[in-house]
Queue: 3 jobs
Job 1
Amino acid sequence: MTDETIVPDEVIMNQIYYIRGHKVMLDSDLATLYEVETKQLKRQVRRNAERFPEDFMFELTPEEYSYSRSQIGTLKQGENVKYPPMVFTEQGVSMLSSILNSKRAIKVNIQIIRIFTRIRQMFIDNTDLRLEIEKIKSKLNNQDKNMEIVFRYLDELVEKKIAPKPRKRIGYKSDDL
């Protein structure tokens, strides 16, 4: 961990989920990282709703919430929430830094944004690697086809090959041999 790192990167990475086609973080996880209460974070977001369009932040549907609860373990059985959880995309997390002014929130935000960037770069690197593998596969398939053609021609040549004609002997030899 560097002096800028407040929370281990692995902790943050484990709190990034894939919901509705977006990498997001839950309000409760962010509140814990920022060391504020979840209701305070939600209150600030609601007061600044114009800063959080649908692609920055959205609330989970009851189905998504129950699924996330079983998959992520956001709440212990028997606990209740008054409002469905909010989830924040990378841009939403960036926007949180403008409404939460504590030094910790700013440092944690910087760290989270760096992790999102690293994840995006890993995805790009992975995509490039997959494209290279596909190119190699394509070349190998073409080579297989070319080798098939070569062997087919060789088979045809072997089949067409006629038995050798008897050759005349050259030189002085008796016919007894």
Job 2
Amino acid sequence: MYAVMDKFKLVGDNKGIHAAIALSIAVVFLFARDAVRLVNFITPWFVMMLIVGLFLTTFFVFFGVKSETIGNTVMKDPRVYWTVIILSIIILFISIGQVFGSDLEGGGTGTGTARPIAEKEGASDATSEGFQAIVHPRILGALFLLIIAAFAIRLISENVSPTK
């Protein structure tokens, strides 16, 4: 966190403030189990995204694309970095939902007589099970790989000229 604060100068140039903010965040992670659970849940997804990116880069270099070309064209292309940003935001929201989902459902301790909508209308728990099936790590991983493959195919096919 200190390195991020020092690099982007979010709160100025004062290294003491950077150290204080980094220490504060470290203390929060020391005492907040949910924050640690969030990091533990989110880390494998970002590592997987990094590994897929490295494999794609290695794949292109293996087939003769210069590394300078990859750095200059692909990494500066808005389609690529916006895709990475959107995937990162999706992973963040799914992780927050998984870690803090039971707290956000609203299962409060109120004394009112209101019943959940599902009980009132006789609805089943199918929507909850469907949501759990969609956000299962295997399904999300497969969708992630399909999206990466689709973008790779699109980027490869744009640069290929037909031979006559």
Job 3
Amino acid sequence: MEKEPITLSGLNDLKSELENLKSIQRPKIIEAIAEARSHGDLKENAEYHAAKEQQALIESRVIAINDLIARANVIDVTKIENNGKVIFGATVKVQDLDTNKKISYRLVGQDEADIKKNLVFFKSPIGKSLIGKNKGDMVSVLTPSGEKNFEILAVDYI
């Protein structure tokens, strides 16, 4: 079983989601199934089939989260000696050299990655190009939309 690196906040988010699924979503869907079942003929009961499908999705997510938690290798970036280098869990402020736009990325594990929140998978093209670099370094990244060039402005361990 391969360990998956995850940040402390990523692990806490998973535990919160698991708690929500078990204590709120699961009882709701069981109630919805019972309600739909009381309407009689199950073959033509759309509510029943939709509720059963929702139940399967919830149960598979519970299994997936339990697996992720079991394989989690929690990395608390605030407790690692870092020497100013970009490492897993670090927040990296970069400037796009083509647009002059400044943006911060946090390098995280696969399950917590969310580009809308600037949480980047550390093995993604951007993540791989940043790992091991220092403030002031120039970084070139091949993305699906072409080559991007960044200057690392700051590296934080929060």
